[in-house]
Design goal:
heterodimer, A: alpha/beta, Nonspecific Lipid-transfer Protein, Chain A, six-stranded mixed beta sheet, 6 helices, 6 strands, globular, B: alpha/beta, Rossmann fold, 18% strand
């Protein structure tokens, strides 16, 4: 997660879209939780599994695997395609998403690149239980 | 540094629509059969930027690309600040016919994408004598009119959300992953630079008023060839919907475009031309051009 946070904070696109963005975003992938705490665009790892603000995006491992495929199939190639087609669910503050879709899209893209990289080097996949990543 | 000029020429024409004067911007290039190109909701004619300057098209066609009223460089009517824009089937057709009449376009071939892909069907159904053929890109009979809820689109027109960023963020999800990044971001820029409330206003036609499900698709393809091209990554107007339309119109042509999304002419023009070229060839053969 630390490496991912570093990548996120170094990303030009996120810096542009996130300069005024303060919220929390969780990506829930099977039993794994990726918790991003965003403060005026500066991202750190959230310190609990509970969201105090913002929203979570929840999907099965199978769905996120399709999103993370080198060539994702139709309806799975973008987070908004997953959401609009009911493959992932949103809990929390919809406005926090709608107010900065470009940011959320890019954050998910970086998370995808990170997850693809982990798969390529053969790191273990999700294990049982709620795992903060 | 060498400056490179396109052959494309831009002009304005003023039209009287609904007792109002609107100033329409359009571009054109090429000579031959008039090919009128209609852009998607919330965008403008820049979506056809590569088609209008492609020699294989402009050597046989006079390509004409207008920006709809309220879109691109076309002005909204006077008093826009105190009214909500809403596109209806009637107002959409009225604008297209007025534009065709102003430019004296005699039975053009009309190509449209998304809302344009729907309205070409309306054109062929209601005004078959005005067109010589239609090409529907990402056509669909409907877009969920039964569940239409304008409130669910509020993020495209509220003061505390940047409607341009919002539109671009959502439309990114309709572009195929294989499309080149430069064209992806150009396509999204068009959405990011739209006028406030315009995209939402167009969606009134797309998602509600332009519903064609209960209408017989009685189009004589001997007189008006119908071509339908749809990208496989478009979940808003899926290819299966266009295929269904083709099955309802005897003689209609349908092709699913692989590795393509909702904006074929803009997100991946080079690949789109591979699909468009045989269509234009067939059309020319059919009209004896």
């Amino acid at each position: 997660m630390n490496q991912l946070i570093e990548q996120v904070n170094a990303d030009d696109m996120l810096r542009r879209f996130g300069a005024y963005y303060t919220t929390q975003i969780q990506i829930i992938c099977g039993d794994d939780i990726y918790h991003f705490s965003i403060n005026a665009g500066q991202v750190s790892e959230g310190d609990s599994n509970t969201l105090e603000e913002g929203f979570s995006l929840t999907g099965s491992n199978e769905v996120w695997d399709k999103y993370c495929a080198d060539v994702p199939p139709p309806e799975h190639h973008e987070f908004a395609a997953l959401f609009a087609n009911g493959h992932i669910s949103l809990k929390g503050d919809m406005y926090a998403l709608q107010s900065n879709v470009m940011y959320v899209r890019r954050l998910l893209e970086l998370w995808r690149e990170h997850r693809r990289g982990k798969k390529r080097v053969g790191q273990p996949q999700a294990v049982q239980g709620r795992n903060r990543k | 540094m060498n400056a490179v000029f396109d052959d494309v020429i831009g002009r304005y024409v003023q039209l009287e629509l609904n007792n109002e004067t609107v100033r329409i911007y359009y571009e054109e290039s090429g000579e031959g059969i008039p090919l009128l190109c209609l852009h998607t909701a919330g965008a403008d004619g820049r979506q056809y930027r590569e088609i209008i300057r492609n020699d294989s098209v402009t050597s046989r066609f006079r390509v004409i690309v207008p920006d709809m009223p309220w879109h691109g460089k076309s002005s909204p009517p006077v008093g826009w600040q105190a009214r909500e824009y809403q596109l209806s089937t009637e107002s959409y057709l009225k604008y297209i016919l007025a534009f065709m009449n102003a430019l004296d376009l005699d039975r053009p071939l009309v190509m449209g994408c998304s809302i344009g892909g729907r309205v070409v069907l309306h054109l062929a159904l209601k005004h078959p004598d005005k067109v010589s053929g239609i090409i529907g890109l990402q056509s669909g009979l409907d877009a969920g009119a039964d569940d239409y809820d304008p409130e669910s689109l509020s993020h495209f027109n509220r003061h505390d959300v940047h409607a341009g960023y919002s539109a671009a963020g959502w439309m990114a999800a309709l572009i195929a992953p294989q499309s080149p990044d430069d064209h992806r971001w150009e396509t999204l820029w068009h959405y990011a630079s739209g006028g406030p409330g315009v995209f939402k206003g167009d969606l009134y036609y797309y998602a509600y008023d332009g519903d064609l499900r209960n209408q017989a698709l009685d189009i004589d393809t001997e007189k008006c060839p119908v071509y339908l091209l749809s990208g496989e990554y478009d979940w808003s107007a899926p290819a299966s919907g266009a295929e269904e339309i083709a099955q309802m119109i005897p003689g209609a042509y349908f092709k699913k475009m692989t590795a393509m999304g909702h904006f074929p002419m803009s997100e991946n023009p080079k690949k789109f031309l591979e699909y468009l070229s045989p269509v234009l060839e067939d059309y020319c053969n059919r009209i004896g051009a």
